[in-house]
Write a structure and sequence with these properties.
With 154 residues, the protein is mostly helical. It has helices at 2-24, 29-44, 48-60, 85-90, 95-110, 114-132, 137-146.
Length: 154
């Protein structure tokens, strides 16, 4: 049935991710993108905790990597997610990086972790809208999703 096939597919994708991490390393762009695919599959399967953990691990990466999504303001936030490993490898304005933050923030909202979601949205909304313009699909997605925690964004 459908659930059995979904679990089997998740197992295969997990195996592929683990193989890529061991073969290419956890900081390889291919490995990181695969982690994003796996985290998205977890979320679509209703495995929100697993998806959130994997997105955090993918975005945060190793503790000693510094960086961060450029911000219009120089504020510190509660989340180390924005000092991300993924963005160090792919870049702070890479589609995968920005989409990863957007997906993680939306997962956090669904789990009532609003402070962390707010910190992410405060940082990525200006970057995404500046980079793509307000009518781009990613910009519209991020702005719309951010309304749950940043109502002044209207």
């Amino acid at each position: 049935g459908g659930e059995h096939n979904m679990l089997r597919s998740l197992g295969i994708l997990l195996h592929v991710y683990e193989w890529k991490a061991s073969e290419f390393g956890p900081d390889n762009a291919i490995t990181l993108k695969t982690a994003g695919y796996l985290a998205t599959a977890y979320a679509k399967s209703g495995m929100l905790a697993e998806a959130t953990t994997l997105w955090r691990d993918t975005l945060e990466g190793m503790d000693d990597v510094s960086g961060g999504v450029e911000s219009d303001e120089t504020t510190s936030n509660e989340s180390n997610v924005l000092d991300g490993f993924l963005e160090q490898v792919l870049g702070p304005t890479d589609d995968t990086t920005l989409q990863g933050y957007a997906v993680l923030a939306r997962l956090l909202v669904r789990q009532d972790e609003l402070d962390e979601a707010r910190a992410i949205y405060e940082r990525i909304v200006p970057v995404v809208t500046r980079q793509y313009g307000p009518h781009h699909v990613l910009a519209r997605y991020v702005v719309e999703a951010s309304l749950a925690v940043l109502p002044e964004q209207q």
